[in-house]
Design goal:
By secondary structure, the protein is an alpha/beta fold. 33% of the residues lie in helices and 22% in strands. The strands form three sheets. Strands 8-7-6-9-10-11-12 form a seven-stranded parallel sheet. A five-stranded parallel sheet has the order 2-1-3-4-5. A four-stranded antiparallel sheet has the order 14-15-13-16, with helices on both faces. Helix 1 links the parallel strand 1 and strand 2. The longest helix has 21 residues.
C-alpha cells in the first residue's frame, strides 16, 4: 500500500485515478511515499525518509526544493502543457487589455453610479478618454516557444497579428506545431526590435532571471512597446521596468505576477496569478500529475520529470528494479555483475541520463531483493527500488 500526501486541494478527477486498494490518500501523512501539490511551498518542509516522488499539478516548480529532492533520489514531476490553453487565453486577454484601456474604462464607469438618467450622456462624453488601438496588423514577439508560447503565437496570427518567435531551445514538436507564418528569430534582439507587443513564455532559471533588464529595454525594445508577462515575475527586473515605464520605452506592462514594487508603478495592469485558474486547467493538471505518479510508483516509468531523465519500459514478466545513479562510466557493468553474482538474469532494460544523473529500469528473472542492498552500496548509486 502506497501513502499519498496532498499538500493542496487537488481536483477529484485527479485523485480518483488512485486505486484505493493500492493507495491511501490523505492531507495528513507523516511518511508518505509520494506527494501531489499545486502552489504549497515545500522549501521549509523536512522531506520524509520514505518519499519517492513529488508531482506538481502545474508547470512551475519554484515551490519545490529540486536540489534537495535530487540528492535524496526523489523524482519531481510537473505537468507541462496541461494548463497551456488557459494561459494562452489569458495572454490574448492581456493583449486586448493593453490595447484598449478596458480596465481604466471599467473603473471610470463605476464612478457614474448614482447619476441616473445622465449616465448615457456621461458615457458618450467620457469614452474618448479611453480610446485604444487594435491588435490586428501589429507585431507580436513571443519569447519562449514551449507549449504555451506556440499556442499564443498561433492564436495571435489568427487574430491578424504579425508574429515573431524566439527560443534557442525550441523542440522539434513545438517547431512542427507553429503556424508556418510565424517567423523564428535567431537572436532575441531581432525578435524584439520591431515588436509592438512582447510576451514572455519561458521558465524562471538563473540564466533567465531579470532577462528583461535596463540594457534590453534600451538597446533591443521598440519605444512604446507593450510588455506581457504570464510566465514568472522574476523574468523582468523591477527597477529597469520602472524606468522604462517612466520614459515610455514600455508603454504598458501586463503581468500575472504582481509584487509590491510593480503595484506602485503607473501603466501596469496587474492580474492576481490567474493564468492557470480555470476549471479545465486545474482538472487537466490534476489528472496528468496523478497519472505520472501512478506510472512511476507502480512501473518505475518517468515522464515529465524536472530532475531525472525521461525513461520508460513496457512492463514484462518478473520483478522490476529501478536504479537512480550518477551519470558516470562503468555503472551498467557493475549492475550486470551484481545480478549475475546472484544468478539473476536481466530480461530487459533501459538506461537514460540527464545532466549529472541517470536512471535505469531493469526487468529481471529471480528475486531482486537478494541484490538490492548490494546495488545500493555501489559508489554512484542514489536509490534502488524493487517493484513486484
Amino acid at each position: 500500500m502506497y501513502e499519498l500526501l496532498t499538500l493542496n486541494k487537488i481536483a477529484a478527477c485527479g485523485l480518483n485515478n488512485f486505486d484505493r486498494a493500492k493507495y491511501t490518500v490523505s492531507g495528513e501523512c507523516e511518511n508518505p511515499d509520494c506527494i501531489i501539490l499545486r502552489s504549497f511551498s515545500m522549501h521549509e518542509m523536512e522531506l520524509p525518509e520514505n518519499l519517492k516522488a513529488v508531482a506538481r499539478a502545474g508547470a512551475g516548480v519554484n515551490n519545490i526544493p529540486i536540489d534537495k529532492c535530487t540528492e535524496k533520489g526523489i523524482v519531481v514531476f510537473n505537468t507541462p502543457g496541461a494548463n497551456a490553453n488557459a494561459v494562452k487565453e489569458l495572454t490574448i486577454a492581456g493583449l486586448l487589455l493593453a490595447s484598449r484601456k478596458i480596465v481604466d474604462g471599467i473603473n471610470w464607469a463605476q464612478t457614474l453610479k448614482g447619476e441616473g438618467e445622465a449616465v448615457g450622456k456621461l458615457v458618450e462624453k467620457g469614452k474618448s478618454n479611453f480610446a485604444g488601438c487594435e491588435i490586428k496588423g501589429k507585431t507580436l514577439a513571443v519569447v519562449g516557444l514551449g507549449a504555451i508560447g506556440v499556442l499564443v503565437a498561433n492564436a495571435a496570427h489568427s487574430l491578424g497579428m504579425k508574429v515573431v518567435g524566439y527560443d534557442p531551445y525550441v523542440s522539434v514538436k513545438s517547431a512542427l506545431s507553429l503556424n508556418s507564418h510565424v517567423t523564428i528569430a535567431k537572436e532575441i534582439k531581432d525578435a524584439l526590435s520591431d515588436a509592438d507587443y512582447i510576451t514572455l513564455h519561458l521558465p524562471l532559471l538563473p540564466e533567465t532571471k531579470g532577462m528583461m533588464n535596463a540594457e534590453m529595454f534600451k538597446t533591443s525594445v521598440k519605444k512604446g512597446a507593450k510588455l506581457l508577462n504570464f510566465s514568472r515575475g522574476g523574468l523582468v527586473d523591477d527597477a529597469a521596468l520602472k524606468s522604462a515605464l517612466e520614459v515610455g520605452l514600455i508603454s504598458v506592462y501586463v503581468t500575472d505576477f504582481p509584487d509590491a514594487e510593480v503595484l506602485e508603478m503607473e501603466n501596469v495592469i496587474a492580474i492576481p496569478h490567474l493564468g492557470a485558474s480555470s476549471e479545465e486547467s486545474e482538472d487537466n493538471c490534476a489528472v496528468m500529475a496523478a497519472q505520472q505518479l501512478i506510472d512511476f510508483m507502480e512501473n518505475g516509468n518517468i515522464v515529465n520529470s524536472v530532475n531525472f531523465p525521461a525513461c520508460e519500459l513496457a512492463r514484462g514478466e518478473g520483478e522490476r528494479v529501478t536504479i537512480m545513479h550518477k551519470n558516470v562510466p562503468n555503472m551498467l557493468s557493475q549492475f550486470s555483475n551484481a545480478f549475475a553474482s546472484k544468478g539473476i538474469n536481466i530480461e530487459n532494460m533501459v538506461d537514460k541520463s540527464k545532466g549529472d544523473n541517470a536512471y535505469a529500469i531493469m526487468d529481471v528473472s529471480g528475486n531482486a531483493d537478494a541484490v538490492a542492498d548490494e546495488l545500493a552500496k555501489l559508489d554512484g548509486v542514489i536509490k534502488v527500488r524493487v517493484i513486484k
